[in-house]
Amino acid sequence: KLPPRGCPACTRSARNPRVHAASVETTSQASQTVGAGKQTQVSIFFETPWKQSVLHGSISGAPWKDVPLNRVGSAPNRWSSCTLPVPQASAAAGAPLLEFVLRHGLKDEWNKPAQGGNYVIDAPGSYTIRSNAVQHSTGTPVMLVSDLDGTMVGDDAATAAFRNWWEEEAVTRGSGSVLVYNTGRSLDSFLGLMKEKGHFLAHPDALISAVGTKVHSFDGESWREDAAWTAQLDKDWDLVAVRDAAYKALTQAGRDNMHFRPKEELNQHKVTCGVKVEVLDSVLASLAASFAAAGIKANMITSGHGDWRFLDIVPIRAGKLEALQYVQGQYGFPTQQVVACGDSGNDILMLQGENPAVVVGNSQPDLVKWYTEQMKTEANSTSGPGGRARLYFAPRHEAYSILEGLHYWNLK
After folding, report:
1. 46-60 burial by CB neighbour count: b if 16+ within 10 A, else e?
2. Which residues neighbour 129 within 8 Å (Cβ) at sequence distance 6 or greater?
3. pTM flag (> 0.85)
4. What's the first-to-final CA gap in the chain, in angstroms?
5. Closest to 154 in 3D by CA, of 212, 195, 193
6. Beta strand pairing status for 39-47 and 125-130?
7. For 280-303, what is the mean pLDDT?
């Protein structure tokens, strides 16, 4: 139900006095007088159980209008948000930069300051609305890209501690931090994990699954596959030829030493096998020779520990780093604010990019070996945030390591 044109929120008298205006120090840029048309933005994060919310407000004294809020992907049961382009200074004399109230999208329920009147914001930035009060939100927004098993998941208390920090602090920074899981699991396997652990596992904004061969985004209600990402994987890829090459390698190695993984772990851009360590090098050599003969370009990714290894064969354009960079481009985050976290060999690709990276304290031997070798060239690196090292080995385990890494770069 839309409010009438003369609703109390829209009258000039409702602005006197201005209650619950955010008290912030504006930056020199925000406080400068700027030319006509120069725009910046205000991001509003509303803590609410309402599934649909609407901001009803006026920008710089302009006519009041409705702006829908969207559920935040990584906190869909807690936060809704919107980002509004605004001038860097109010155009109308005496008018606030943004004046507004919030209402339920389906029924006649309103959210206003506890002391009456309307919410008032006088400077660009990020703001939270909770307990009927507006507060300025500070801190650097981050795009966190984490493996699941052994990294975000493994210690339930650590997983819960991360979720609490993420929803309480990270979500509302800037125009919103973004949480991405980058996993070898399929979408169905991930959804099963969320069903099992969703009461303490943070919900992501995006999912990179099946070792970088699938990208999905969450719109607050459902998951949507990124068809553009999937389509570009077809170049230089032939699933039948890849399977034939894997079968040839299996025949040479013997069925006691190699096998295809269950069909739920496979897709049109991913062939996965289990291979014994003692024949792994010969299997990789056989595959490389077959791919070269067939003109196929593929990434062969190994992970695991003990007597067996997972072997994932994916297109040359797929993989955890390639998919990470694609999702980073979708959200527009600078590299210094994109943090990757992992614990095994199939995380090496995304950990060796230019972005800051956390090697968790419980990492598998293959990743620890890679880290040790990598530090021979990165030991004196200052390419990470704040001039610190780009690659960080966190002494703690699982999700506690993630929090420790973020603290190391002053991103927590």
Report:
1. bbbebebbbbbbbbe
2. 44, 45, 46, 47, 102, 111, 119
3. yes
4. 41
5. 193
6. parallel
7. 96
